[in-house]
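Lay summary. Proteins are chains of building blocks that fold into shapes, and those shapes determine what they do. In this project we predict the shape from the chain. Here is one chain we studied, written as its sequence of building blocks.
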Amino acid sequence: MKPNRIALALVGGLSVFGGLAIVASTPADAWYCSAKGTTGATGWGTSGNLASARNIALRECAVQTPRGARCLIMYCK
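And here is the predicted shape, written in a compact code that computers can read:
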């Protein structure tokens, strides 16, 4: 292989690996949130984004909660 092709292959390979590393979130860098309703319903959500994890947990709790009752985030970590 010519030096230019080797350099191009190396840059291309590193670009693909770097892209996969950014897209793939591991459990270590994901947020986990728990929500609890006034009627005892619970919900949890995980996401790489804190706001999304909170919304998922609240939605899961709300599905099990009757009208007029509330769900609150208990914790996120």
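What the prediction tells us: The chain has one domain: 3-76.
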